Amino acid sequence: MQDISLFPPEARCVFFLTDDASDLTRYEDLLPDERDEVSAAVDVRKGEFGDARWCAHQALRELGVESAGAILRGERGMPLWPEGFTGSLTHTEGLRAAVAAPKRHVHSMGLDAEPAEPLPDGVLRSIASPTEIEMVSQLQADGYTWADRLLFCAKEATYKCWYPMTRRWLDFDEAEIELRPDGTFTSQLLARPAPVPLFEGRWVQRCGYVIAATYVR
Fold first, then answer.
1. Are residues 147 and 195 located together in one domain of the fold?
2. 201 belongs to a structural domain
3. Which domain range does residue 171 map to?
4. N or C: which end of the chain has fewer CB within 10 A?
């Protein structure tokens, strides 16, 4: 997934695939303050948290940060990156990933991954506008059977990019997504005030997943 088309050249992305949801190896290697964040959680949650944090630390090391300290959770679970850096984390069944970049180049980033399969019945109408539903239907007719899942993924990536900039919730109906078959998308921000009118993003379908990313320089 280290694809220059998804992220700016100054960013570094680290990911891995796993078939063991309860593997605590990387969780146990975290700093004590990081482990404490989910110490009361079930093993699967600990594993996801540890894996994603491991990816984040590796991405920072690729940026030359050898000792980043603990990456704790802020408001609404937002990862607290070391001074001067920004990024985003994601985990889903079988996939963990993180991207990081220096803030002198990138103001905020959002990354999300989901299995490349349709959403459960009824979910699309709870997250999408009539325009988005029509767009998804056309993409599905063109062979993108997981277009509804991609829309969800793009909305999640949009929120992850939005929240560090605003410290405000962004609901599903407050961003209108336009997905394009060329691997790009636009998130028109309907909430006001907004730091920018829209986010430009990119997406890929790979290894059984749809992955969406957006960033603001």
1. yes
2. yes
3. 113-216
4. C
Distance CA 82, CA 24 (A): 24
Retrieve residue 101's tokens: 């970049």
CA distance 22 to 24: 6
Q: Are residues 74 and 162 in the same domain?
A: no
Q: Mean per-residue pLDDT for 88-116?
A: 97
Which pTM value belongs to this model?
Answer: 0.95
Together in a domain, 118 and 204: yes
Segment 71-80, tens digit of pLDDT: 999 999 999 9
Same domain, 117 and 95: no
**Count of the separate structural domains present in the chain:** 2
Nearest to 153 by CA among 199, 119, 192, 105: 119
